[in-house]
Structure formats: C-alpha cells, structure tokens
User: Fold this.
Amino acid sequence: MQYDPIKQSLGKVFNKTPFLRKLFYCLLDLLLLRTWHIKKEVKIWTKNKDGKRNILDAGSGFGQYSYYLASFKKKWNIKGVDIKKEQIEDCNNFFDRIGMNNVSFEFADLEKYVEKEAFDLILSVDVMEHIPDDVKVFKNFYESLKSDGMVLISTPSDKGGSDVHKHDSDSFIDEHVRDGYNINEIKEKLEKAGFSKTEAKYNYGTPGKISWRLTMKYPILMLNTSKLFFLLLPFYYIITFPVALILNYADVMYKHNTGTGLIVKAWK
Assistant:
C-alpha cells in the first residue's frame, strides 16, 4: 500500500492557512504514538542542556518535529533536511510565514549528507526503514555530530513492524525497503559506524499496536479504497480518539518486552 499519496493529500488540505497547518501538527502530535515517545526522549536529553543547541531533523517530512523542537526551546537552531524538494519548499514557506526564524530546511540525500561536527542532536523519525544503505547514513550521522552528541531514532522493529508478521508477508507500507530492525542488529550497525554507546528499547507494545490500527492502519485502508472516506474521517476519529489517547499513554508509561517499534539512542 502506498502511503505517500495519502500524506500529500492530507498536506494539501491542512496547508491552506497557517492555522490549519498548526492544527495538523497538533493532531499528529496527539494521534501518532511515535511522537509521544520522541517528545519523552527529547525532554530527557535536554536536562542540563542550557543555551544554544544545533539540531538536525534528518528526514523532516511535513516539519512537525522541527516545529516542536523550535517551539520547545527558542535558543535551539533546527535544520530540517529531506530528499523531497517539494516538502522542503513547502516547509520553508510555512516557517517564513509564521516568523519562526530558528528553523531552516534544505534538500539532502542522507546517504551523502555530512556536516562535520555541526549538531548536538540528530533526530531520525521513521526514516531508516526507507533507506537502502543504512550503515552509510549512520556513519554520516556520526561525522555530523559534535563530541558527546546523540542520535535519536524511531523505526519499526522486526517484531511485527510495518505490519509484517511472517517471513513471506509484504510490508503494509510499500515505500519501506526493510520491514523492521532486529534490536541487536541496529545497535551493531551504529557501533560499526563509530558510536561509543547505544541504547535501544521496544515501543508499540500491546497498547501501541491497538492504537496504531485504530489511528493509522484502518483510516489508511479506507482512504486507499476511496477518497470519499475523507468526509467520514472526522466522525471516525471522534469515536476512536479518546481510546487512542489512553492507549498511547499506556504505551509510553510502561516498559515492553517486545513491540513493533524501536526507540534507539547512540552517542558519539
């Protein structure tokens, strides 16, 4: 199933005014469980880190994480990079319109992009499953981090990530080049790239898997069937939204022995 056309359609709807764009970000923050986990980890990282920080949003997409980071700490400088030129232009236009001048966006291929010792934090959210040469990207991250800098990665695991539960099953998202990472595999690849310390844990445990189906899988399946389901989405989410919030909260609060997602941290 192709996910990008749906994202582009949603982006056009919510990009008509800055208010709608901010509303879109707010809805993504509430509905997408990975955002809950990312925000938790960013708050942990920012303890005892005052003053200016340079952060790379590697695979910035709609720019929702860049918006969160730039709003969270006004002294932080955020650079978003993405391989899709139309999204880079769109994000630059939006952030210029709202006067948020501590954020910039530029086109970049992460397999080639290196900015020597420029960043305190590199954020990579649901990006690595799209990139064939992941080890090369990890090496580029390492080279681009300052000493003691950290990379924070959210990506599907091999425990049902991309909604794959059997070896011969196809990924739910056609754009994925891998179904998910083994938790030891991604740590080993990061260490091979030069990182001195790595941590990885599962998310999207039982509560998260249910929430993902309610908030993402079923709506996407409906929209792939017919664009007319756009009209039904608000009513669908009115019913499922309270349940999803409870499930997301539970997934963030509890430790999971297994899960369909991974939160990975590595330090230079």
